[in-house]
Protein: DUF559 domain-containing protein
Amino acid sequence: MTLRSGAGVTGWAALRWLGGRWFTGRGPDGFSLLPVPIASALHMRQQRGTQVTQERISPRDLTVHEGVVLTTAVRSVFQGMRAASTDLDAAIVAEMAMFNDLVSRDELTRYVLAHGRFHGIARARSCLACLDENSWSPQEVRMRWIWLAAELPRPLCNTPVFTRDGHLVGVPDLLDEEAGLIGEYDGAHHLDVAQRRRDIQREAEFRRLGLEYVTMVAGEDPARVADRLRAARARCAHRAPSARAWSLEPPSWWIQTDSVVARRELYGTRHEHRLGHRRII
Structure:
């Protein structure tokens, strides 16, 4: 399909084309194919496999990538958030774009606040305060929302934990620093025997340092996960930083990758390999 002036591929399809690993074009069931969303300032006939949204679009919101006309990354995220069926789904769109450094929270916030008259803007606006730039998967976002729905303090995302002498113990999905509570989502690859051995050893090392641990897997009832999180936090030691066997203070050799800005600074340097897990595979 040839796109006319004032129109471009947008949403998940544009973000995938721009390098977004988690934008696969699959529906919630993991099998059905999503239509390719098109944003157009002009009337366009909807063709099979596409979903056209007609609304105003500035030339600044269009770009050409590998010969395909797309809306810019921030506009594509904006489109995906507004089209999401829930606030959680909207947050996943934004955070998975941030995973590949396609947009920062500040860039997205400025864009959303500057485009307040678009359909679905309330959904995009309502998610801004809760977004985190360091979520590594959609399921981590879902677990964090369960955590917050359980009325527990907001956890840190993928923050490295070290021993007091500066050795890396691991990077848990979620961490309540005050209580000493770790939350981990185990996907299908954790069923591999070798991976399972590593997971068990890793959990044992965290527990040896006095950290409590909760694991979530696919398909669990959110209410049950919330109950486990609350019960685990009640068991936590809540030790002062000076009394902990672990630390969040990174040693001098550690390279920070916890924000979009920090990661963008690594591209083209000898530390770029630290971002390898974020590429499309």
In short: The chain has nine helices and twelve strands. The longest helix spans residues 193-208. The chain has two domains: 7-130, 138-247. Residues 7-130 form one domain.
